[in-house]
Amino acid sequence: MIEPQIVQVPEKRLVGAHLSMSFTNFRIAELWQSFIPKKHLITMAAGTDMISMAIYKPDHFAQFNPANEFEKWAAIEVTSFENIPDGLSSFTVPAGLYAVFHYTGLNTDNSIYQYIFSSWLPTSGYELDQRPHFEVLGEKYKNNDPNSEEDIYIPVRAAN
């Protein structure tokens, strides 16, 4: 399967919309529908890539249950937090080590995540770190297209 790049990611400033959800109550369409109409109002954008970010509780994966809630964000990276449009929020992703998986396929296909957490991570020499997980949706990202491309960032640290 896919071997990731292990990279040190600098701190990222994001502006976007967020919702609490679970995998059994996955409100992703609602989240993006609330963000996209306001995206053009963000004046301090650092680029055109969109970010889909998840903030999980510390025991989310240790005691995995699809009904466990987490915070999901639809955002873009910004150069500063000046002039945040009404209805949007800011978030700073701390710098840290990430395993970056380049993925091609449907965003509804969860097999990449099954591979990452069940196959790659247990034998990688790394363990999950308690920082946000995110996907970078760049120029080659096409929603609901089997040829869509995105980069999946999984926070890691050296295993003890």
Number of helices: 2
What is the end-to-end distance? Answer: 25 Å
Largest sheet: 9 strands, antiparallel
Beta-strand portion reads 35-45%
Shape assignment: globular
Using the CA coordinates, give the radius of gyration: 15 Å
Share of helix among residues?
A: 10-25%
Structural class designation: alpha+beta
Order of helices and strands: EEHEEEEHEEE
Low-pLDDT residue spans? none
Give average pLDDT, whole number.
Answer: 94
Q: How many strands?
A: 9
Structure description:
It is a single chain. The chain is an alpha+beta fold. The chain is globular and about 45 Å long. The two termini are 25 Å apart. It is 16% helix and 42% strand. Strands 1, 2, 3, 4, 5, 6, 7, 8 and 9 form a nine-stranded antiparallel β-sheet that branches. The mean pLDDT is 94. The protein contains two helices and nine strands, in the order E-E-H-E-E-E-E-H-E-E-E.
Strand and helix map with partners:
Layout (H helix, E strand, L loop, with lengths): L4 E5 L2 E10 L6 H12 L5 E11 L14 E9 L10 E5 L2 E9 L6 H13 L2 E3 L4 E5 L11 E10 L2
